[in-house]
Amino acid sequence: MSTPEALPERYRAWQLFGAGFENIGENDAPSELEMRQPEAHEILCRSDALGLCLSDMKIIKQGNQHARLRGRDLASDPTVLGHECACTVVAVGDDWKDKFQPGQRFVVQADIYFKGVNFAFGYMIPGGLAEYFYLDERALAGDEGCYLLPVKDETGYSESALSEPWACVEMSYRIEERFTPGDGRVLIVTDRDIPVSYEGSVHVPRDLEGLGEGETFDDILLWDATPELVEKLGHRLNKKGAMFIFGEPAAEGDANLDIGRIHYEDIRFFGGGDTPDEIQAKNERMDLQPGGAALFIGAGGPMGQMHVQRAVEKQDGPALVVVTDLDKGRLEHIENRFGAMAKARGAELKCYCPKDFPSAGDLNTELGGLVEDGYDDICILAPVAALVTDAMPMAADGAIINVFAGVIVGSTAPVPIQDLCRGVKIMGSSGSRISDMLTVLNKVESNELSTNLSVAAIGGLLAAKEGLAALRDAVYPGKTIIYPQCPEVPLMSLEEVPEKLPELADKLGPKGEWTKAAEDALIAHYGRK
């Protein structure tokens, strides 16, 4: 634990005053804010490392209209960007002196809920793209307790900050699904004489006669499915609702499903059996199939690379890891970073660029030819609903299609219902939980996971706006880490570090990876004195 530091009279923060890059900061520089001692109900934290995220692009683009801002007028009440944040407590209000003290280190779990209301860090609560920030009871005593997770002194700033995006990846393999119907309002659709009923359930024939206009349900049980029925009934699912499709379909074909709702509202379509128990058995696997085949579509970006790294490092992970991306440079980066790692585990890593094939169909034929019975796991990392349609024919029986990239609610794609009936499960998730971040942080601090392998560029606080523009333009193949306490360090790729910051040259990893030693040298030479 470090010694409490002397605080400056003012500090800098990248405030957002509205939609658009022109509203980031003031005159292309961070705002200068008055430093004050925390109120009794607050603590003051120093921002040590901050990962830039594509979610920042959404709030910059949407401004006041972003759902998590709930109509806040940024022009008069600006927020501060940045939610992937490692920090150190520097001052404590009277109400918290029994729990916090200067020098304690934490990582912020950004998805903060207080009295049932979301107050996400970097959105409603000003974030970490600043030299300092304040937190109050919303983050310190929220609905899930404290949203600051303790970090060991020996853990690096960037590797702990990156536990936040990594937690979102972990969450996508740890979704808590409900595989049995009956917990809410139930609709049973069948022409058969089936002795199935739940308290308050509604029974209608397959022509849906008697179904009230606009009625919605938590569970829909369907026998003898057709594409038309699946599509119509899909609109009747509540948030977190599930449709259970029993047996074989009465007719094959495509149903247009709302992929955005699958990702953001957790609706599900479960098949693969004649009974609820059989459907549960077919769908209950959530993580990558041990020894299986996994396909990662559009995985060249920072989050995609995390998925690939996780698959390659996982000791009981897939035997075949296939990656596609439009950017050949990013694929080369993936092969350079993770090829030897895969080989050491006895797994095979293959990368493909769609630009090398005459058409998407030719690429899909090539990918399909790599596996005999289809892919056990397909992860979609580009926000294109139609990629679900492309993925379905390549999915094995009982496969998981993980829609990780968020597509807006209302984005539909044609899905063959016969694939749903053979147990292909489409799932998605957004954000993470405290338990997911703790899982990742424990892996980092026990040397099971190197989140620093995700780093592709670094910079100081003054370079943050340039870093956001580079993120928007997909300049770097991995994460950009901003060091607020090293404000003058220019934005640079890791390949540029030896030339621009020669003091760090021998501190990088064997393949130029970011390391804690390089971070320590950066702070020692360029940190705020």
Topology record:
Elements: E1 10-13, E2 15-16, E3 31-34, E4 43-51, H1 54-62, E5 79-80, E6 84-92, E7 105-108, E8 113-114, E9 117-118, E10 132-135, H2 137-140, E11 148-150, H3 157-161, H4 163-171, E12 186-189, E13 202-204, E14 217-223, H5 227-234, E15 237-246, E16 254-258, H6 259-264, E17 268-270, H7 276-283, E18 293-297, H8 302-313, E19 320-324, H9 328-345, E20 348-352, H10 360-368, E21 375-380, H11 386-391, E22 395-403, E23 412-416, H12 417-421, E24 425-428, H13 434-445, E25 455-460, H14 464-472, E26 479-483, E27 492-493, H15 497-500, H16 516-526
Helix pairs in contact: 4-13, 8-9
Structure characterization notes:
- The protein has 529 residues and is of the alpha/beta class.
- The protein has three domains: 10-157 and 451-493, Quinone Oxidoreductase, Chain A, domain 1, CATH 3.90.180; 186-282, Rossmann fold (3-Layer(aba) Sandwich); 286-430, NAD(P)-binding Rossmann-like Domain (Rossmann fold), CATH 3.40.50.
- It contains 16 helices and 27 strands.
- Strands 4, 6, 7, 10, 11, 25, 26 and 27 form an eight-stranded mixed sheet that branches.
- Strand 18, helix 8 and strand 19 (320-324) form a beta-alpha-beta unit.
- The chain is globular and about 75 Å long.
- The two termini are 18 Å apart.
- 49% of the residues are buried.
- The mean pLDDT is 95.
